[in-house]
Write a structure and sequence with these properties.
alpha/beta, Rossmann fold, five-stranded mixed sheet, globular
């Protein structure tokens, strides 16, 4: 038997924070690749500390639903899972290349734990960013005549976060699909506040590389870009800002195709996922009405 455990931050203050995690777990569960699919959170129940005890399978793949390598993936999650012998050097990562390491956990020593790198640095995340642009515009061929901005928090908060933003922006740029591709930040230059300064394209899709919609993606970024003076009054999509149409997509982690990245992380660690990638890709292409 093999199990998948998706671990995420969660929030005591924002009930929507855990919604993408549950949605992606449901998608993976329905694809049938794992005997069990569980979720665990740092700031919600069920907790990361307890989640391994709820798993019956003896082969467990743990995938962090986080954007970058850093404090949570290197310290908090291994500690809460009680991974024996954990050493971040085992990933031998440059901040983008963490793949997986196989360990045991002290409170469930009979289980083999495959601890994976975060979803946000996986190459498959690039496709999710592009899919997010397709979703917000309603155009599966969006690209020509459009600019694309990939938005992150900023290097002062987490240097590796900026690496992930640049990595995916570079990969999308190499596709030669969009007329312009730019990495922007909330707290560093180039700042998302000045989004229109960085694009000649009249239409610009803005996709935050965040897992869930919350304070930053629902309030800060829309107000910083000038989509609205008060997030509580809402904003148009697209919104007219200084001669540009801004298509604001919200957090990339809410895109259904994220389940694909979770599966790919587990597969890289040795999980037998069968044809589940094809199932997920087909299902997440459908509208909610078509999927039911």
């Amino acid at each position: 038997m093999q199990a998948l455990v998706i671990v995420a931050h969660g929030s005591h203050l924002n009930p929507d924070s855990s919604a993408p995690t549950y949605d992606h777990a449901d998608t993976v569960r329905e694809a049938g690749a794992f005997d069990e699919v569980r979720t665990g959170f740092w700031k919600e129940e069920p907790s990361i500390r307890e989640v391994l005890r709820t798993v019956e399978a003896d082969e467990v793949y743990v995938v962090p639903l986080f954007i970058s390598e850093g404090y949570f993936t290197e310290q908090v999650i291994p500690r809460e899972l009680r991974l024996d012998g954990w050493d971040v050097a085992d990933w031998d990562s440059d901040g983008l290349s963490a793949s997986h390491v196989t360990l045991t956990a002290s409170d469930v020593p009979e289980k083999t734990i495959h601890y994976c790198g975060p979803v946000g640095t996986h190459a498959a995340m690039t496709e999710v960013l592009v899919r997010r642009a397709e979703t917000v515009t309603g155009d599966p061929n969006v690209g020509e005549g459009f600019g694309l901005a990939v938005v992150g928090h900023g290097t002062e908060r987490n240097e590796n976060s900026a690496k992930a933003i640049e990595y995916h922006a570079d990969r999308i740029r190499e596709m030669d699909r969009f007329d312009e591709v730019q990495a922007l930040y909330m707290d560093e230059e180039p700042e998302v506040d000045d989004v229109t300064d960085y694009f000649d394209s009249e239409d610009v899709v803005v996709v935050p590389l965040f897992i869930a919609d919350g304070f930053h993606t629902q309030e800060d970024i829309p107000e910083d870009m000038g989509l609205t003076d008060d997030y509580r009054t809402g904003y148009d999509v697209p919104a007219e800002v200084e001669g540009h149409r801004i298509w604001y997509a919200g957090a990339v982690g809410t895109e259904g195709l994220m389940a694909d990245v979770v599966l790919e992380r587990a597969a890289d660690a040795g999980a037998d996922i069968g044809n589940s990638l094809e199932v997920v890709r087909e299902r997440t292409r459908k509208t909610p009405q078509e999927a039911n």
